[in-house]
Write the structure tokens for this entry.
Amino acid sequence: MRRLASRPAYRTDRSAAAYAAAQRVVAGGINSGARGPRAGWVPGPPVVHHGRGPRIWDVDGNEYVDYLLALGPLIHGHAHPALIGAVEAAMSEIGTMFALPYELEAAAAERIVAAVPSAELVRFGNSGTEVVLHAVRLARAVTGRPRILRFEGHYHGWADQVEWSHPPPLEAAGPRSEPRPVPGSPGIPAALAETLFVLPWNDPEAVDRLFARRGGEIAAVLTEPVMGNTGVIPPQPGYLEALRDITRRHDALLIFDEVITGFRVAYGGAQTLYGVTPDLTTLAKALGGGYPVAALAGRRDLMEPIAEGEVLHAGTYNANTIAVAAAKASTELLARPGTYEALFALAERLTSGIGGIFERAGIPVQVQGVGPMFQFWFAEQPIVDYRGAAAHLNSPRFAALARALHARGVLVHPSNIELWFVSTAHTAADIDETLAAFDDAVAASRAELGGRG
Ligand SMILES: Cc1ncc(COP(=O)(O)O)c(C=O)c1O
């Protein structure tokens, strides 16, 4: 393993000052809950100066290999010249928005239709939250049924209709056989619990039982096809197929929320990787490679009520030229031969290296992931659902190791509810540098981590 190059001392005073200054005008100094102390960035997050390729520099001058990757979108790394070029050209040659159609929209939509098996028609939006909301509205409209079945530990955006049971305190979540939906924030109307069912994931019998009793009320099953919001929990073999089969038998829709997995675990998303085609798909993150764009895609007959204007899908900023140019350019880069083989090989180099470091240290972990999205748990057995993960979430051991990694130039989210991402900008040398830092961080965190020696 490569030795750790000597580094300048890790300093955080300028970040602390900039973060404190921001708090005078920005609520909490951050613009999303995932970026502050409550989410694990204690005492405060590093304040970024700039990012390039697979790296970030903060205002103290610390340099990091970035595995946070803005929580997933940056599949090409930071400031990719092809994306900047495409967006700049769109802005200067076309303009930014018109509230009218323009030709580039269809060119970008065609790429999604060609890539994603369930996508026959597409509507663009600006964020994952928005397109999930449109998906559940459409599902209720076409089935005439009121409820959505979703799963504990999944995240589908911050909106009242879907921000439930992520992550539910176990004391509030009810029995495993019949979980209670738990709102994710004060201010979410309790009455919306009546529009949902919640179950543990990866348990096809539980879904079967619920449909047998209440199937006539369920418009759709909404699921991440790989659970990427409680670390990473892959689907058990046959689980996605079972969801497909049960929803079909009960005339309910299957919605894959591929906001994380779309264009990340395969060009056509998790539905390509696992060979299970949902009825509707939501896409964001890697689709735009770091620009705010999202898409709702689905079967032609299901999307028809939106096409006809019967079901409302709207938004002033939908399909602005920045979003559309980014989606087109991002997917063009991703379509290049060998992209996913290279991403998976890099991720494998990193995850097997991490597994080896823990093994040599005598620290039991479960490294779980699908190619370039992964996380590890300080657990003896694989984690298959939220209830199994709950005891290991927000682990102080993980947070201590994350802090040691930050000080050694590796950027990861300090909570293991989040995950590691690998981009096409990372190289084998970046991974080896990361593993050397990881080895050193584990050695330096022995007291917090336990294990041998
Ligand atoms: C699976 C999933 N769905 C939806 C969302 C919400 O997307 P956005 O943050 O773009 O609103 C996220 C965000 O992380 C997500 O992971």
In short: The chain has a mean pLDDT of 97. The chain has two domains: 13-79+338-449, 81-334.
